[in-house]
């Protein structure tokens, strides 16, 4: 927006403001202009943040819908298929028991059971 304003233009604007408002009011005008710009920047950042939060919430809702749809499809596929749901083993496999934390390591030179 202000990309085309250079140093000579800024000096001209300053001289015009000095002539129009006088040297006593110029600092007050600068302070109020600075505060207004700061408030505008804060408001625009808040708006941007709230928009980003809304977009993220919508993406989460869409992902949740996709997960529910996939779960329903999976539930329908397992109930319609032959044999019903896939059983889950209750006990650990023999390979897992060999590496369990309570198992001791075989001594050197001895054959480990396989």
Overall description:
With 114 residues, this protein is mostly helical. It has a domain at 8-79. Helices cover 69% and strands 0% of the residues. The chain is built from two helices and no strands. The chain is rod-shaped.
Write a short abstract of this structure.
The protein is mainly alpha-helical and 114 residues long. It is rod-shaped and about 85 Å long. Helices cover 69% and strands 0% of the residues.
Overall residue-averaged pLDDT value: 80
End-to-end span in angstroms?
76 Å
Helix proportion: 55-70%
How many β-strand stretches? 0
Strand content: under 5%
Order of helices and strands: HH
Supply Rg.
Answer: 36 Å
Structural class: mainly alpha
Number of helices: 2
Shape: rod-shaped
Tell me the major beta sheet: none
Residue stretches low in confidence (pLDDT < 50, at least 5 long) are: none
State the main characteristics.
69% helix, rod-shaped, 0% strand, mainly alpha
Write the layout of secondary structure elements.
Blueprint: H1 7-80, H2 94-98
